[in-house]
Write a structure and sequence with these properties.
This protein is of the alpha+beta class. It is built from 10 helices and 19 strands.
């Protein structure tokens, strides 16, 4: 593996344990995203990889060589921060070239590499401008260019899009993905935005309270979440959850009992167990079909978003969100019935909140 983290921990002098036993292997050229809520340890882990934070315990290796004690320059990493950190008095050209200038690289080489980098980033026509004359997205591209021009082996990005508006974030996501395809750089990207993680990553590392919750492809995390946290964090709107106790093969949803014996062959083994019943808003269907569980509810609110509608429903005191085709938006303040296909039903242990996989899934 190109990058290896073995039982890496970060403990600050005040005793705060920010990162616990972090284990990860990253292949050369892979795009890995660390995602999680604020304070989960993702940026701290990135800074340990960069050499900006000391590693309290464990081992960090680059290409099989221990790098715990190496300086950032010795690690050959390039980092893009949340703030653009551009020099306001310097032109775009000089900002991009700054690192090479410090290294005493020949001016002709600098010119060639700046022009090539600007071409990749679409900045050629802005090289004579100052940062204040650029949009937020353009300034972020300059910051990326300054890191990219170093041709470092590892490219680190710490929430680079958080200062951009929604439209700029969408544009920059596409540009970052394109840059990665063109350069093939090994990239580690930190964000709290699960949409960025899902659209950019080869693999995602989901973190909470300094611990890795799950590592996998976007597909694996979406369809096979390891626990309630991952299931609720990945997906928009988030997965619906309902706590219940299994009784006669049924779970309680609001004011009704949902019989799962026909869709979950393991319900007998779960009798009397506290579980968390979950389903994704977009997984529901409005027409009855074999192998699906019917749910009655009352429509409280609808949000028409164009191609789909968010439908806020309630059953007893249990609330949930459904996502439907906009052409089949139910009326507000009416009763409706929807169906959850058996394969779209998730059960989690009520105590550990880890997923309970059906027997056939556990064997596969």
């Amino acid at each position: 593996m190109y990058i290896t983290l073995k039982d890496v921990n970060k403990i600050y002098p005040n005793g705060f344990h920010a990162v616990h036993n972090f284990n990860l292997e990253i292949e050369k050229g892979e795009f890995v995203v660390f995602v999680g809520p604020s304070g989960c340890g993702k940026s701290t882990t990135l800074r340990m990889i960069a050499g900006l934070e000391n590693i309290s315990g464990g081992e960090f290796l680059i290409n099989g060589v221990r790098a715990n004690e190496k300086s950032p320059r010795e690690r050959e990493v390039a980092m893009v921060f949340q703030s653009y950190a551009l020099y306001p008095q310097m032109t775009v050209f000089d900002n991009i070239a700054f690192g090479l200038t410090l290294q005493g690289v020949d001016e002709d080489v600098i010119e060639q590499r700046v022009q090539a980098t600007a071409g990749i980033l679409g900045l050629t026509e802005y090289l004579d401008r100052l940062p204040r004359e650029l949009s937020g997205g353009q300034r972020q591209r300059v910051a990326i260019g300054r890191a990219l021009i170093r041709k470092a082996g590892i490219f680190l990005m710490d929430e680079p899009l958080s200062n951009l508006d929604a439209k700029q974030r969408v544009t920059m996501r596409g540009e970052i993905a394109q840059i990665h395809r063109e350069t093939g750089a090994t990239t580690i990207y930190v964000t709290h935005d699960q949409t960025e993680a899902m659209t950019l990553a080869d693999r995602i590392v989901v973190m909470k309270d300094g611990y890795i919750q799950q590592t996998g492809t976007p597909y694996e995390l979406y369809f096979n979440p390891a626990n309630v946290f991952v299931a609720g964090f990945i997906g928009e709107p988030p997965m619906n959850f309902c706590r219940s106790r299994v009784t006669d093969g049924c779970v309680t949803f609001g004011d009704q009992q949902l019989d799962l014996k026909g869709v979950r062959p393991d319900m007998g083994t779960l009798e009397g167990k506290d579980v968390v019943f979950g389903f994704r808003p977009e997984a529901i269907i409005l027409a009855e079909q074999s192998g699906a569980v019917g749910v009655d509810c009352h429509v409280e609110l609808t949000e028409m978003l164009g191609d789909n509608t968010n439908v806020y429903i309630i059953s007893g005191e249990q609330q949930a969100i459904l996502k439907t085709d906009s052409h089949y938006t139910p009326e507000t303040d009416t009763d409706m019935r929807f169906y959850i296909p058996g394969e779209s039903i998730y059960l989690f242990d009520g105590e550990t909140e880890n997923v309970i996989r059906p027997p056939e899934a556990a064997r596969s």
